[in-house]
Amino acid sequence: MAHSLISLLLLSFLLLFASFPQSQSNQFCDAGIGNHESTCGISPSSSSSKLLIKGGTVVNAHQQEIADVYVEDGVIVAVKPTIKVGDDVTLLDATGKYVMPGGIDPHTHLAMEFMGTETIDDFFSGQAAALAGGTTMHIDFVIPVNGSLVAGFEAYERKAKKSCMDYGFHMAITKWDESVSREMEIMVKEKGINSFKFFMAYKGSLMINDELLLQGLKRCKSLGALAMVHAENGDAVFEGQKRMIELGITGPEGHALSRPAVLEGEATARAIRLARFVNTPLYIVHVMSIDAMEEISKARKSGQKVIGEPVVSGLVLDDSGLWDPDFITAAKYVMSPPIRESGHDKALQAALSTGVLQLVGTDHCVFNSTQKALGIDDFRKIPNGVNGIEERMHLVWDTMVESGQISVTDYVRITSTECARIFNLYPRKGAILTGSDADIIIFNPNSSFEISASSHHSRTDTNVFDGRKGKGKVEVTIVGGRVVWQDDELKVVPGSGKYIEMPPFSYLFNGIDKSDAKYLSSLRAPVRRFNSAS
Ligand code: URP
Ligand code: ZN
Ligand code: ZN
Questions:
Q1: Care to name a GO molecular-function term for this sequence (predicted)?
Q2: Which CATH number does the domain housing residue 177 bear?
């Protein structure tokens, strides 16, 4: 009730806000969600368009150096030792801290209609949470409306109007005909989408078959768009679910038991082979198991262009929560592919540290306890999804850097730069370089973080990482040159986020034409035959 009232107030504010040009507005708004009161107000001090970050260790994926970073009008203007500026510049002291590109989350679902309900974080609350955790851009998945990509895109444009940070879109492909094929071209050439996701699971809703996947892979290749797959064998999952129900297993543990890792491995292998057959790059989203990771490893060793994206839940959790006797506690861990038994998490971490997997997403897709309770009598009805957009940067730091598995430059690569490269945004995003967007975090490695459902910024009332503590803390988040997170306070502007168009033909397409030509010349066909019988 309180939440709906706050949402209503927020909506009225947004409608009011929408009539002002962004540059004239200096209205800031606390997230006003989760456990926070809405405190929209005027904050002229935060509106300086000039910032100097002094004395920090500036970290890019390729190097780190002690330097100052000067920002004007949302763009990094200079990165060098000892920059001198005038009085009109806001100073931020970063001595002893890391100055890094804001995180880019390649995989989120904000305001997504799914499994009979809608994810509870929208483009404002989800992004506010992201900013509090040091993520400054995300890429969300547009779901077509009645199979129409254009209608889906327009619906997501409306959902994203309240954005307070930059975002891009992938597009799901859920059916196939001439109009889908035509609309894919419109998405790439006119709408700035350069990736399409194919769901090999969710039978009866989003799932596609191999024939569609093949058509989709071919079309992606011709458009220079990256094909992405949710890799689980949906037909076998359907069988597994029936088996569990027949055994009387109706609770959340049935979710994990019905879709074992072998089904993820099978679909990953199949998608990889089909992409090899078509000769187009492939991106496997939410890699949750050793089985899937090993298929990716094999393909990459053979020279195939396959990207593997683990998500933070798969990297740091195991499936034990699904056996919790309390339904809501167990249901909060339900996502697909499922969080696996202990051992998969460590193997995924190792794969990330050795380059078998390339970047970390979240698959942030949250439902509150009431929504999760839709499946109280049947795990098949529990809306699938967990949180992570606010926690990713801290948990990856603690799990990967503090444990000594990766360096600080690698951290920047897997949380930001590699995503920018894959989706063709680098070096505008994913770097602290002259000319890059001023999406920056100041990270204190000597501080600490603690995660709690009662203090997080997401609208959901549970958190799969509840109670986790660790080293390191995002102390300041700067988005588009504005300080939005400092001293544990969030000041975000609805409508200030921009849609970022992503051009096709990223680096992953380099050389595809040459390998196609090599393949054609290797065929030694058609053979010119004479008919010996005549
Ligand atoms: O459980 C999940 N992963 N929910 C979001 C939809 C998807 O499959 O990415
Ligand atoms: Zn998925
Ligand atoms: Zn997802």
A1: dihydropyrimidinase activity
A2: 3.20.20.140
